[in-house]
Amino acid sequence: MAPDLPLPQAGGMLTYDSAGFRLDGRALRILSGAMHYFRTRPQQWPQRLAALRAMGLNTVETYVPWNLHEPRPGDFRRLAELPAFLDEADRQGLWAIVRPGPYICAEWDNGGLPGWLTARVGRRARTSDPDYLAAVDGFFDALLPAVVERQVDRGGNVLMVQVENEYGSHGSDTGLLQYLADGLRGRGITVPLFTSDGPEDHMLTGGTLPGVLATVNFGSEPEAAFETLRRHRPQDPLFCMEYWNGWFDHWGGPHHTRDAADAADTLRRILAAGASVNLYMAHGGSNFGTGAGANHADPPFNSTEWTHSPFQPVTTSYDYDAPLDERGAPTPKYELFRSVLAEFAAEHPEEVRFRSDPGPQPAELPELLGPATVELGESAPIPFAAPVESAVPPSFEELGLEHGLVRYTFRVPGPRPELQLTVEGLHDRATLLVDGERVAELERGVAQDGIRVAGGALVELLVESLGRVNYGPHVGDPKGITGGVRHERQYLHGCRAEVFDLGEPLPELSFGQGGSGLLRGALTLEATGDTYLAVPGGQHGCLWVNGFLLGRYDARGPQLTLYCPQPLLHSGRNELVLLELGDARPHSVELRTEPEFG
Length: 598
What we know:
It is a single chain. The strands form seven sheets. The chain has an eight-stranded parallel beta barrel, surrounded by four helices. A six-stranded antiparallel beta sheet has the order 16-25-17-22-19-20, with no helix packed on it. Strands 15-26-31-28-29 form a five-stranded antiparallel beta sheet, with no helix packed on it. The protein has three domains: 300 residues, Glycosidases (TIM Barrel, Alpha-Beta Barrel), CATH 3.20.20.80; 93 residues, Galactose-binding domain-like (Jelly Rolls); 114 residues, Jelly Rolls, CATH 2.60.120. 19% of the residues lie in helices and 28% in strands. The chain is built from ten helices and 32 strands. Helix 5 runs parallel beside helix 6 and helix 9 packs parallel to helix 10. It is of the alpha+beta class.
């Protein structure tokens, strides 16, 4: 049932036909840029949004990650962030496009779907399965009222709302898409709904709905993409909902960049075709905490030529080689895009309109802190929760854990000689200790050869999750040990599992000198600023700043520094806490003045 809200106003209606969009009856070319509120700190939104407006954009687009807002069933958090972001966009003179999923991809953990949900419904996720739809209904009930009241036909700035995301790349359950569209309408969404898919026949037939605007996503060759869209939807306006002007990175892979002039030329061709556009990304930001997703190479769709495993976790940085870099600074791509947009606006004044004109000018970015070294002189043991006893190793989801560490402990029966030890279904990385000695580092998708253990030994596996797959048939990726631990062909039973939850704030810890586990150092500042943090000598792990988990670091690169935004720091004493999970003992964290992508 539709909520009890004011009826749409006479003005503010966005309509469209094959010629384009009209707002209040006047032509409107939608010039949008993607910026995700959850990949920047709220204090940074005004500067970033003003910079989008100054580039010549009139709209901002954002996804909504369900798992951020409902990390446990019925436990809704941070719901105020989306309406606050939309209000700030309004103040900065921007309309908004909202993409609430429930699946979003976005190189975000599990494509935005909660791990507890995909563990419950399995392959029934993203279908018309009643259990899945009931969970979606609960999320939409909590999320959508704030979007409804901010629609353009109610005096707000929300122009459009998406139905699912790239469903044509996944399935063919049109009943699901219709249910979602009906649910959006029934909850009060009156602005145009849309779908977005790749410009291929099977994607556009599988991912679209009659009466719902169809848009396409691509990075090049706009003429061919729009020709395909026109063939399927001659009555719809042309819209590239994701113009991939950059790309994301995986740990262990190359850092992706795109020639700025080439990207600007493609933007010019999109506009020349008469299309609206959404730059993906205009500002990428950071995968803070455990938000980064992963991909799984499934030939012929993905390549493993530069990785040693088909499992490919996404880096903490989501810089994306976007026009605004991870810190929010304009790049050469920004300047070229601004020139293209200015030329287009001058040539088509009847189409290019802005919510406010002129928009606010971007504030100056914070100063960068100078180089410094923070010694890690204190340590504390990893604060594992009370152990859980189980016949077989429970998965993270069975332990109620989205992301973190689980220490699995087994005793090998004996007496017996040394035999091969095998961990089946490792998701994603583990340190193996035998009788307290570190024996091996194990990784998902990598052969486990030459590991032999004698009878009577105490076997410990410290298992780390790295990001659930966000795209393709492996979405719903479970974590932990999803098979079992075998000694030769015999499964080891009688498992003790201890959890360290990386999704929750650090508990109170008692730090001292020496030892291992969590390492701590202090950074004293007279004035704050942005900085980039490096862990010389570290292999892989996590870094907190004043209790906030910045994300993961990994010496494999390409990302070798973590961006630390000014809002996380304060004058006086700042606490840095490091969890090193490799076979290393880093002694310091370094502050650097620029990012390093190997």
